[in-house]
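To illustrate the input format used throughout this study, we show a single complete record. The first block contains the structure-token representation of the backbone; no residue identities are included at this stage. The design step must infer an amino acid for every position from geometry alone.
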């Protein structure tokens, strides 16, 4: 079977499901369903990572007011079914917030499932005990290469060793671990040994993502993957995901429409950008926003928990995220797969020029033309 024949088989097999998902996206635009709510506890971080999408880092920063947050979450619990809304405590580095454990316990007592995204360097025995007591079942930790490469990206020596120690502490406490790795030009060659390392750590899953052209990564453009490397990364994930010897789930992150070639083969679900459809967030200054990775622009702020009830904003706001932005982009309008891509991820949408900053389909076409 030729590559073209295989692709045609994939198109025939995947098209019905992808059309149903496209129809569901249209339904969500009119009937959004809050499923993930991110709480940015702080924009302060103890590290200064070269790829940080929100450019966090340094000693200066803001902390989300504990009282305001807990009041807002109480109203969310009243207005939504708590068991159906996943709360993610994130940052910056969320463990820097002085009331982290108070917030975690309150989230748990309100009936929300919850998780934390952390760089892992502050997870000591006390932190593990506190998180376990607050009902935490899984943690997402960052591991972005072998020791030297990880520490270089994170901007501090010893980070790698602290993450490894954190994984062991969490596993000993019965808390599941997902490891997320951001792949860039300086660690692309470490994919195989990094895979072996994560397998040996006993993680439940390995979430592999490409470095994105956002935040501080824009100042470090030499880290961005070439088109060939990006496609090589997708091939690598597919290979490991279905390898009989792989002891954990291996998947690509939630970002990006991956074309008929890769969709539904690198993660459990087909692509849909949930920003404003089922994903919302509260920023560290109380602003109500969509996905935290989206460029912070005043016109995209939907409200503030100091004056607005979250459910009212969720119901009546987020219009920018519930419209068809492909109508603004000639490249998208001419794309035969725009029905399924819908302009790709919102966090890599160029709001000034109304076009995606990244496109897997474009990368594939460029590579095929070489």
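Output of the design step:
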């Amino acid at each position: 079977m030729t590559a073209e024949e295989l692709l045609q088989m994939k198109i025939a097999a995947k098209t019905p499901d992808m059309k149903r998902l496209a129809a569901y996206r249209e339904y969500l635009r009119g009937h959004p369903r809050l499923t993930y709510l991110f709480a940015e506890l702080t924009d302060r971080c103890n590290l200064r990572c070269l790829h940080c999408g929100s450019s966090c880092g340094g000693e200066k920063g803001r902390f989300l007011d504990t009282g305001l947050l807990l009041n807002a979450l109480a109203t969310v619990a009243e207005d939504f079914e708590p068991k159906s809304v996943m709360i993610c405590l994130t940052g910056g580095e969320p463990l820097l917030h002085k009331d982290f454990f108070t917030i975690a316990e309150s989230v748990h007592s309100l009936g929300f499932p919850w998780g934390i995204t952390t760089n892992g360097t502050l997870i000591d025995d006390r932190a593990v005990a506190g998180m376990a007591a607050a009902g935490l079942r899984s943690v997402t930790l960052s591991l972005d290469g072998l020791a030297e490469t990880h520490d270089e990206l994170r901007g501090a020596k010893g980070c790698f060793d602290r993450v490894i120690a954190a994984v062991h502490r969490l596993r000993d406490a019965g808390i599941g671990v997902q490891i997320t790795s951001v792949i860039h030009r300086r660690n692309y060659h470490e994919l195989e040994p990094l895979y072996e390392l994560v397998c040996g750590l006993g993680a439940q899953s390995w979430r592999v993502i490409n470095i994105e052209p956002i935040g501080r990564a824009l100042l470090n453009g030499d880290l961005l993957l070439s088109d060939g490397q990006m496609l090589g990364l997708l091939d690598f994930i597919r290979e490991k995901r279905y390898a009989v010897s792989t002891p954990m789930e291996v998947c690509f992150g939630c970002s990006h429409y991956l074309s008929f070639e890769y969709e539904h083969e690198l993660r459990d679900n087909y692509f849909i950008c949930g920003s404003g459809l089922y994903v919302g967030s509260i920023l560290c200054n109380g602003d109500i926003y969509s996905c935290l990775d989206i460029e912070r622009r005043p016109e995209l702020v939907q409200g503030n928990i100091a004056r607005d009830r979250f459910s009212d904003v969720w119901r009546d706001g987020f219009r920018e995220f519930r419209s068809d932005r492909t109508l603004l982009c000639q490249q998208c309008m001419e794309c035969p797969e725009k029905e399924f891509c819908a302009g790709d991820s919102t966090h890599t949408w160029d709001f000034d020029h109304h076009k995606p900053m990244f496109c897997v389909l474009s990368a594939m076409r460029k590579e095929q033309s070489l």
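Structural context for interpreting the output: The chain has 13 helices and twelve strands. The chain has a mean pLDDT of 93.
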